[in-house]
Structures are given as C-alpha cells and as structure tokens.
C-alpha cells in the first residue's frame, strides 16, 4: 500500500487491512506515532516512514508488528528512542535510523533484534557507542556508521557484532588509524573509510587483524599523506584469503612502499589523483601484474 507524498500529518485514521504486507508512508508530515498506530496490520512486513517530521513515539507505537522485517525511519527529527520501542521486533532484518539527530543510542534498543542483518546509523550525530551494543544481534552483517562524530573507532562496540561483514565508517573525525583501530574484527570483508577530512596517517598493522578483508576503500581523504609500509602486514600470507581490492584514489599520498601489498594477489588497485613523487621508488606500481590497475597519474 503506497501512501507516500500524501501530506498526511497524523496516523489517526483506520489502518486495519489484515492482508497488507508493505506500507509506504514516506514523504509525509507525520510528527508522532501514537500507541497501537499499526495495530490492525498484524501481517505487515515492510514499513517505510522515511522523510517525515517524526520526533516522538509512544513506547507501544509499533505494538502488534511481530512479523515486520524492514523498518525505515530515516530523515526524521528523532533525538530520543523510548527503551521499549523495538521490543516486538524479534524478526526484524533491516533497520534504518539514518539522518536523525540521535546523538546517543543504547544497547537496550537492539536487545531483542536477534535476526537483524542490516543497520544504517549514518548521519545521526553519534560520537560513541556502548561496548556491548550489538551483543544480541548475532546475525548483523552490514553496518553504516558514516557521517557521524566519532573521533576514534568504537572497536569494542564493533567487536560485539560477531558476524559483521561490511562496515561503512566514512566521513568521521578520525586523525590516525593504528593497530588498535580494527582489532579482532575477524569476519569483516568490506571496509569503507572515505572522505575523512581529519585522517592524516595510517600506521603499522592498522589492518593486520582483518583476516577476511577482501575490499578496502580509503579515498577522498584530503589530508591523508602517510600509509605505513606495514599497514597491511599479514594480510597476504598464504593461509589468509586475499585482500583483492584496494582503492586509494584522491588522497594526498606522495609515495608508497613496494612491500606494502602483494601485487600477485590484488585484483584491483586504484591510486589515481594523488600528488605522486614520480621517481624510481614508484616504478613498482607500473610493473605490478594486477588485473585492474588505475595509476594514470604515474608516468
């Protein structure tokens, strides 16, 4: 049922279609979700409330939605979530709270989300996360924490997401990445660290604990000048899966050590749009036998 862009300002009408599985209420003017607002929709699986003006919920606002699999609350005015708001969401698999001024979120909000696989917390003004926040979300595979206010990687929180495969952490205020930044994220396969305006340096063994990492994006970081030659130490051992894709486009890198990566194992390597010092020390990149190499700036 598509009720998007209908200038709806309140959920004060009867929603009692037992067969409805999809409800789109996005791009309206809804400001609050009252108690039992969706009580007549007990088969609902997909609910989109994005781009409204929601600032408050009754704690029982989602009562009766035990079968919900996907909930989009992005682009509202949420700054507070009642403790029991998501209590019935045992079956929820996808949740977006992006583009809300939350600042803080607590472990209790995810306590019963044992089937959650995809979570978007981007642009929510977060600067810290509780250490055990994802300890009950054992199936969480995708997490977006980009465009927030983190000054360090919330590693204890990330480690509590035991199945995490894809992390977006772009547009945060990190200055340095070191060997503690991503420690023991053993299941992570894709890592995005783009457009981090404060990032200056990647130190020794910064990515060494990412035993299953396959793709790293670290581009458009306008102050990133240094990546230590041992930043990827251990990732190219025979016993570990290959780090196949590395994207370092549009940073401020002037040189890279030839021992930093194993050319024979990388499938895609993008180093374009960096202010390279094109001397003999950089010739190794042109000689790399990589399937897709993007190094047009290197002469």
From TrEMBL:
From which domain of life does this come? Eukaryota
Q: Which Pfam families match?
A: LRR_14 (PF23598), LRR_8 (PF13855)
Where in this chain does the record put each Disease resistance R13L4/SHOC-2-like LRR domain? 95-290
Q: Enumerate the UniProt keywords alphabetically.
A: Leucine-rich repeat, Repeat, Signal
Matches recorded under SUPFAM superfamilies: L domain-like
Q: PANTHER family, alphabetically?
A: NEPHROCAN, SLIT RELATED LEUCINE-RICH REPEAT NEURONAL PROTEIN
Designated name of the protein: Disease resistance R13L4/SHOC-2-like LRR domain-containing protein
Species for this entry? Trichonephila inaurata madagascariensis
């Amino acid at each position: 049922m598509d009720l998007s862009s209908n200038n709806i300002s309140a959920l004060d009408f009867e929603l009692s279609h037992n067969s409805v599985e999809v409800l789109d209420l996005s791009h309206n003017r809804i400001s609050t979700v009252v108690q039992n607002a969706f009580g007549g929709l007990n088969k609902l699986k997909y609910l989109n409330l994005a781009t409204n003006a929601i600032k408050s919920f009754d704690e029982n606002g989602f009562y009766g939605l035990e079968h919900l699999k996907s909930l989009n609350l992005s682009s509202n005015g949420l700054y507070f979530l009642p403790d029991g708001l998501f209590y019935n969401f045992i079956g929820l698999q996808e949740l977006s709270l992006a583009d809300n001024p939350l600042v803080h979120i607590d472990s209790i909000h995810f306590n019963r989300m044992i089937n959650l696989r995809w979570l978007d917390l981007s642009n929510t003004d977060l600067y810290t996360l509780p250490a055990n926040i994802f300890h009950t979300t054992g199936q969480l595979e995708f997490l977006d924490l980009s465009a927030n206010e983190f000054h360090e990687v919330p590693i204890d929180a990330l480690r509590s997401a035991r199945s995490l495969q894809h992390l977006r952490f772009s547009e945060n205020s990190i200055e340095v990445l070191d060997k503690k930044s991503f420690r023991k994220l053993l299941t992570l396969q894709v890592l995005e660290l783009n457009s981090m305006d404060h990032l200056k340096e990647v130190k020794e063994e910064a990515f060494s604990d990412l035993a299953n990492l396959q793709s790293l994006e670290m581009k458009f970081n306008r102050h990133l000048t240094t990546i230590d030659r041992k930043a990827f130490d251990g990732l190219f051992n025979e016993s570990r899966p290959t780090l196949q894709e590395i994207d370092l486009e549009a940073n401020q890198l002037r040189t890279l050590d030839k021992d930093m990566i194993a050319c024979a194992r990388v499938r895609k390597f993008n180093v374009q749009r960096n202010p390279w010092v094109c001397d003999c020390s950089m010739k190794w990149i042109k000689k790399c036998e990589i399937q897709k190499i993007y190094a047009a700036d290197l002469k």
